Amino acid sequence: MAHRYLDPKTIGRLRRVSVVARGVVEGFISGLHKSPYLGFSTEFAEHREYAPGDNLRYLDWKVVGRTDRNYIKVFEEETNVRCYILLDVSGSMGYKGSRSDGLTKLEYSCYLAGALAYLMIRQRDPVGLVAFTHKVEHYMAPRSSAQHLGLILDQLEEVRTGGGTGVGATFHELAERMKKRSLVVVLSDLIDDVETVHSAVHHFRHRKHEVVLFHVLDPDELDLPFGGLVDFIDMESGDRIQVDPAAVRGAYRETIDRFTKNLRRSADEAGAVYVPAVTETPYDMLLARYLMARSRS
User: Fold this and answer.
1) Cα separation of 241 and 224, whole Å?
2) Which helix (H) or strand (E) holds 67?
3) Which residue ranges make up each domain of the chain?
4) Residue 258 CB neighbours (<10 A)
5) What is the pLDDT of residues 159-198, one digit of tens each?
6) Residue 94: CB partners within 8 Å, gap ≥ 6?
7) Residue 210 to residue 83: CA distance in whole angstroms
8) Is 224 left (phi over 0), alpha (psi -120 to 50) or beta?
9) Quick one: CATH architecture of 8-30+80-296?
C-alpha cells in the first residue's frame, strides 16, 4: 500500500546518502547503542548485591572473599535504540505560506517523521510516534517491525491540527513515561516560552534521553513578507489583529531572530541538538544534510 509520507523517490535518495557516506544512518544514532541498562555482555559495568534468582556464575568471588558478602558482576549490553518521534499537531502547525511547496508545517513534519521512522526501522530500531498539542493526543509505543512502520505512516495521514501548544506539561509527562533511555526527536514550531521549552528538554536529558529538536518554521514566519494592511489570525486562539507589516517588520525580525537564537542556546545548554527546519527547504535535503553532519561529528 502506498503511503503519502513515505515517497519512494525520497527513500531512494536517502539510501544513496547512506551508500555514499558509509555509516550515515549509524552516525545519526552514534553513541546510543551503548545501553545505559545493565545486562550480561562482555563489558563490565559495576557490582550489585546478590538477589535470590540471580545467576551464580556472575558472582565476583574476589569481592566475596574480601568482604564476605555476595556481589554480582553487572555488564553493559549492546541494544537497539528506542526512538520517539514527538509531532506537534497544534493549530499553528497548520500554517502554509507561498514558499513552502504547498506544505503546511505539519505536512512537512510528517514527511520528516515518515523518513525518520523508515530509517530507524531499517536499522531494526524500535520507533514510536506521539502526536501532541497541550496534551498527548495520540501515543504509539516503539516497535521495529515493517507492520509497525505501516501503522505509523497510517497515523501520520490521519493527524489534523487544532488546539494550543503546551510543550512544557506534555514533555514533562512524556519524560516520566519513557522508562528506557531513548532518542527523542521533536518536530515542532516550538511556539512556547523559551524557558518552558528549556525546562522540558532538560527533563528529557536528566532522564538520560538524547534529544533532537527540529524547529519547523514557514519562511513567512521569519521575514514577514506581506504588504498593505493585513488581518492576522492566531491559529490557536482565533484572536485577530490588523497590522501594517511594513511598520513592524524590523522589530518583528529582531524578535523572531532573538527567539530562534534563544532556543538554540537553550538546546545547547540542555545538551540537546537544535536543527532549524524551514519549510522552503526540501525535507529530504534537510534530513540528508543533518545525517551527513551527524555522521561526521
Assistant:
1) 15
2) helix 61-67
3) 8-30+80-296, 34-78
4) 11
5) 999 999 889 889 999 999 998 889 999 999 999 999 999 9
6) 104, 105, 106, 161, 162, 235
7) 9
8) left
9) 3-Layer(aba) Sandwich (3.40)
